Amino acid sequence: MSDHDQIPRLPKLMGRAMRPLPTAPLSVTLTLLARRIAKRHPGLFQRLGQYRETRFLLDATDLPFKLLLDLRDGKVKLTAHRTAPEAEARIAGPIAGFLGMMHGAYDGDALFFSRDLIVEGDTSAVVALRNAIDDAELDLSAELAELAGPLKPFVQPAVTLAEKGSGMVLHRVDTLAGGWT
Amino acid sequence: MMELVCPAGTPAALRAAVEAGAHAVYCGFSDETNARNFPGLNFSPEELVPAVAGAHKRGAKVLVALNTFPRAGGEKLWHQRLADAEAAGVDAVILADIGLLDYAATHHPNLRRHLSVQAAAANPDAINFYAEAFDVKRVVLPRVLTVAEISAINKEIDVETEAFVFGGLCVMAEGRCALSSYATGLSPNMNGVCSPASHVVYAEEGPDLAAKLGGFTIHRTPKDRPAPYPTLCKGCFTSGEQTGHVFEDPVSLDARHLIPALAKAGVTALKIEGRQRSRAYVAEVVRAFRAATDALADGRELPLAELARLTEGQSATAGAYAKTWR
């Protein structure tokens, strides 16, 4: 939590604007993104070890839907739901917490100590997921840019704008983003 | 300058530690051969090779912890990991078990040996025994000593000493604590896990967060209080008519203000705990401690950046160094 004593919450207006979004097409896009990440970062799933068949409920408490990361049958699915689906493990907290951990800005344990993050169900699976994602050094803005095809040049300015507006971390913050050469 | 020895649970954390200024990084393999055998954590032998090469390129050392006690009949795994560590070109291995120390000294004589905190060598006689018998070059001191005791030890030994200065605080005689085993059947000594996540359950019970280990409720924390790990030594218990943290509060070690005193006491290296933590934690803590060791070397006042929010209990203690416990 380098520069953040309190993690930001999604602006309520933004949350309300997202509410009418249909979950089916959103789920298709999210699954596409998750599969792309899985393909580009195979080590992430190797690190999950025995939890490669687990369902994780990512309950971003300031989003109008809950996300299910379903890894059963060797397939990666990331889907949006109005109500909580069944899962072996639940991680709940503001979306900024999830994104900050993913980008190396926040420490998961520190978010847990401060009660910004709640863990329920299979704690061991959650620890494995947290460690796997931390090691993968993901960058959502880079993944979105690759996914955007011809719209790629517009992604980075849009991400910068979204970061300024929301206070969330949407890209890798460490100095190693250029690689370890 | 005092050497800063920093944790790395993953290759990404190792890179973060080195970039943040670690002089040395310690890590372990993804199995029961080290005391942080957590899910999704640690290195495969294949991952260790480029990690060591990258660290060396940047002038940082890599130390590998093989600090659990081999199971009878299962020693081959520990022996294989010693060979893997040497093949990867690591700068030292951190060992606790006498049998493994002997095996390493016999079969890998050129591989530098450090004595793990898990060996609980807390007096000059014990340390000198390890030095003479196994040519141990450095001892990681147990977290039960005062600065004055460390100073006294250093006057009677010829090996380097390494002292913990930050992170999770084990208050027991390490390598001998069986509390975790009582509740879960698994211990840091044999399985590499204290209060393993596989036996931990967190449950929102009304306004409280209940933290359970092996079915036992270790903490019940009100909404506005920091959440702790359910480790038995920091649990909240009722003893007689008193309810409280019988052994130790859920707080973490921060001995930055004692670094000059530790240097004066003859300590060679400062160790940061937290291989199970994220690269964000590693980078921030290492940066803060590197600033402190640089300041000490330059004769400047030590900067004390705020780190409490990263720690269990979100508050810090000087642990045994100052012996102000009840």
Description:
The complex is a heterodimer of chains A (181) and B (326). Chain A has eight helices and five strands; from the N terminus they run H-H-H-E-E-E-E-H-H-E-H-H-H. Chain A is α+β, with helices and mostly antiparallel strands and 181 residues long. Chain A has a domain at 12-137: Nonspecific Lipid-transfer Protein, Chain A (2-Layer Sandwich), CATH 3.30.1050. In chain A, strands 3-2-1-4-5 form a five-stranded mixed beta sheet. The longest helix of chain A has 18 residues, at 23-40. Chain A is globular, with a radius of gyration of 16 Å. Chain B has 326 residues and is α/β, with parallel strands linked by helices. Chain B folds into two domains: 3-169 and 251-321, TIM Barrel (Alpha-Beta Barrel); 179-244, no CATH class. In chain B, 30% of the residues lie in helices and 21% in strands. In chain B, the strands form three sheets. An eight-stranded parallel β-barrel of chain B has the order 1-2-3-4-5-6-7-14, surrounded by six helices. In chain B, strands 8-9-10 form a three-stranded antiparallel beta sheet, with no helix packed on it. In chain B, helix 1 (11-20) runs parallel beside helix 2, helix 1 (11-20) runs parallel beside helix 9 (279-298) and helix 2 (45-57) runs parallel beside helix 3. Chain B is globular. The interface between A and B is large, with 41 and 40 residues.
